[in-house]
Amino acid sequence: MFRFATIGICSALLSVSLFATGSECDDFTNVSLRKLHSKESINLCEFKDKPLLIVNTASNCGFTGQFKGLEQLYQDYKDKGLVVIGFPSDDFFQEEEDEANTAKVCFMNYGVTFPMMATTAVRGSDANDVFKHLNAATSSPNWNFYKYLVSADRKTIERFNSKTTPESDELRQAIEKQLK
């Protein structure tokens, strides 16, 4: 009887272990990042097997109004699997110094509900690990609101510049192709 109980416990532990391992990933998204104006972090593996739209953002840029369109993209496609992730950056000297002010712009002014990460570098040797990978695979953003569409299997990355708006047919068609 003891032997069967031990096997049952070992089996349960193995199941828990496999479940925990299943939430991990072996690509550039296996990184924990702090959320904007929060002590809470998320590991981007949470979005495993989902296409990602990764955007470097800024609060005081001529393109800041794109937050509205990015939020609409997120609302239109989140139930189909798309995850939009914002990375505020001061690399172009257009981000608030205080994260509380950045959060206000994102969450209060534009009603952003998609994940926003803490302010970080997106270019050069100081770039966060996600952008180091994106930059190596494509190239560094030349300005704020560059968009990187990453396939669910993480093998394809498409780069869209600031002038490609969230409402553009080009971006929407690329997203829909990734969702098929």
TrEMBL record:
Gene3D superfamilies found in the cross-reference section: Glutaredoxin (3.40.30.10)
Keyword set, alphabetical order: Oxidoreductase, Peroxidase, Signal
Repeat listed as a keyword: no
CDD domains reported for this sequence: GSH_Peroxidase
Statement: the UniProt record of this protein carries the keyword Transferase: no
Taxonomic lineage from the root: Bacteria, Pseudomonadati, Pseudomonadota, Gammaproteobacteria, Alteromonadales
Species assigned in the record: Pseudoalteromonas fenneropenaei
Stretch forming the signal peptide: 1-20
InterPro entries listed in its UniProt record: Glutathione_peroxidase, GPX_AS, Thioredoxin-like_sf, Thioredoxin_domain
A GO molecular-function descriptor: peroxidase activity
Domain Thioredoxin: from-to ranges: 19-180
This protein's name: Glutathione peroxidase
Family per record: Belongs to the glutathione peroxidase family.
